[in-house]
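Posting for a labmate who doesn't have an account.
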Amino acid sequence: MTKRIGFIGVGNMGTAIIRGLGTRNDLELHGVDHNETRLGELGKEFGLSSQASAQELAQVCDIIVISVKPQHAESVVKRITPELNSSKCLISICAGIAQAQLKKWSDSLCPIVRVMPNTPALVNKGVSAVCLEDSDLTEEMKKLIPSVFEGIGQVHILPEKQFDAFTGVIGSGPAYVFYFMEAMVEAGVALGLTRIQATEMVKGLFTGSATLANESSFSVTQLREMVTSPAGTTIRALMHFDRQSVRGDIMDGIFESYKRSKELGK
């Protein structure tokens, strides 16, 4: 049976999820957004039906995805609450908003699923955490909802209490990777490479290294050791990183992100 899934907000992440669902025939796509041009494009490309308001979308859809900025989530949920009932499911991809808060805003009229994707979802290489702890969720929904997000990358079912850890490591993680990439590009420029050369080389380095880690049977530690010859250039660099406590600083930064996520969730 075809389910109707509606997106309140078709910004970058909402659009990415819709694109990931584009080839499925078991879901009927709906959307509402101030950006009518984007809605029209998604309609032409994926058959998405535009709705005039969030309330109308909630009325016609079985699954409602809240993909707006976190500061707008409360007003959106409260606006659509009159259209909710136990047969519907509300999914939030808004960072930092707990399931209990979403339940309160929606008067506990329908089951709630909290999802946290990260930005590589924009190229279908994301890593998403999905919380299915709401006791009102049907078995059908517990199977269907993770599959909605498999179109944009990996999906990991986690209890909500682990979402702050997920945020620290994975949600904020792309920024750490880009930060390190920036430093490597600047080092390359300082050593005489052009910025274009350094940028392309560093991109290739990260793509190739990630692919190797993903496809190899070796652990990341073993892969690092393969590059680290005795008395060579790599061990010299790694020893410097260790003297500067780079590994510990990375871990401490992740812990700071984790703590901030917990603060925002209060």
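Reply:
Got it, the structure tokens are right above this. The longest strand covers residues 3-8.
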